[in-house]
Specification:
two-stranded parallel sheet; alpha/beta; ProC C-terminal domain-like fold; five-stranded mixed β-sheet; 12 helices
Length: 260
């Protein structure tokens, strides 16, 4: 995800010289430097000293360790921390950073790798209007970014867009398998299912999805039979159950990750 953000920022005319990537893996840093021409460092603290924005692009399990190592940074209200780690609340990040920090939590998803991501953002009380705009601009480099009213809403964002790509991958997988069962060669079923998903998602970008579905669903036609089967088997309830389960797990992870 960090590589995606760097690539997106550069594609949106951010200067490579203004970006520094930090990692303990020297090989990873070499790859980033060669690929993007940015600055690199193995010293998080030194690199963060003069940074306007510190992106915390680490695994949730490493967040406490990384933040604690930065806790000696002077409390600077002009410095913004942006976390893309799932399940780690802003108050825990602020506490590990030593307190009094401007923090934006972000929940991106994997299509950010193609600059087609969907990110939910939440800010703590220390974030100024200009910092909110800056965080939004950064995340828009890899897709759309949407502010939620309260940080707890990010658990729902996780359930819908954070985990959402996997739901669509799974549906494509099932559609491919169904095509094979109906007699299509696997390659044909795969190409048809994937192109259909791409076309449908593209059409849905700026159109009402109910209207689009109704246009395809002719009375007593083939599509109507499939939709009626979905409705009979309560696909709507399955989706609600699945997203509720994802939201619950997001809440559980937050509790697990922040226990002292």
């Amino acid at each position: 995800m960090a590589s995606s953000l760097i690539g997106g920022l550069l594609a949106n005319e951010y200067e490579a010289a203004a970006i520094t990537a930090c990692d303990i893996n020297a090989g990873q840093l070499d790859q980033l430097q060669q690929r993007f021409g940015i600055n690199t460092s193995s010293d998080n603290l030194a690199s963060s000293q003069a940074a306007d924005v510190v992106m915390l692009a680490v695994k949730p399990q490493l967040m406490r360790e990384v933040c604690s190592a930065l806790s000696s940074l002077p409390c600077n209200p002009e410095q913004l921390f942006v976390s893309i780690a799932a399940g780690v609340p802003a108050d825990a990040i602020e506490r590990w950073l030593g307190g009094q920090r401007a923090i934006v939590r972000c929940m991106p998803n994997t299509p950010a790798l193609l600059q087609l991501g969907a990110s939910g953002l939440a800010a703590n009380a220390g974030v100024s209007a200009s910092q909110r705009k800056l965080a939004e601009q950064i995340m828009q480099a890899v897709g759309i970014s949407i502010w939620v009213e309260q940080e707890s809403d990010l658990d729902a964002v996780t359930a819908i867009s954070g985990s959402g790509p996997a739901y669509f991958f799974y549906f494509i997988e099932l559609l491919e398998a169904a095509g094979v069962e109906l007699g299509l060669p696997p390659e044909t079923a795969a190409r048809l299912a994937r192109q259909t998903a791409l076309g449908a998602a593209t059409m849905a970008q700026d159109r009402d999805v109910v209207e689009l579905r109704n246009q395809v669903t002719s009375k007593k036609g083939t599509t109507e039979q499939a939709i009626l089967s979905f409705q009979h088997d309560r696909l709507d309830q399955l989706v609600r159950n699945a997203t509720a389960a994802a939201q619950r797990r997001s809440l559980e992870l937050a509790h697990e990750l922040t226990q002292e």
